Amino acid sequence: MVKGVLxxxxxxxxxxxxxxxxxxxxxxxxxAIYKDFLQRCKMxxxxxxxxxxxxxxxxxxxxxxxxxxxxxLWTHHNYLIKPDRSIDERKAKYLLPKGSDPIVQVVVKxxxxxxxxxxxxxxxWKMHKCYHANIDSSMYYFL
Length: 143
Description:
By secondary structure, the chain is mainly alpha-helical.
């Protein structure tokens, strides 16, 4: 009986405790552009699929390629980030599905909380880790 309960927890509950937003839940605008972002950022940084998977699962390896990949996702074409490194809330809301205001609020707070970090790559890495730590798992995005 104990083994059965343990197996249930390991197989069913642990994976569902962390729930990345799935592609079919992306807003149409994000669906239209995100694959280009991914391809360009992967090519630019040389990040591995394993490192991306780790971050999607809530682990944050201290690896320069995943940090640069994260930086690239945030800053690609300067779409979400203004020149002063603040979040363009209007554009963020446009990219995300309805009901995503909590995501924008958390990201804006994490952006502000890490504003003292001088290195852009470290700034966006810390901002993303803060976002992960402060958002409901059903609202976590990492492309």
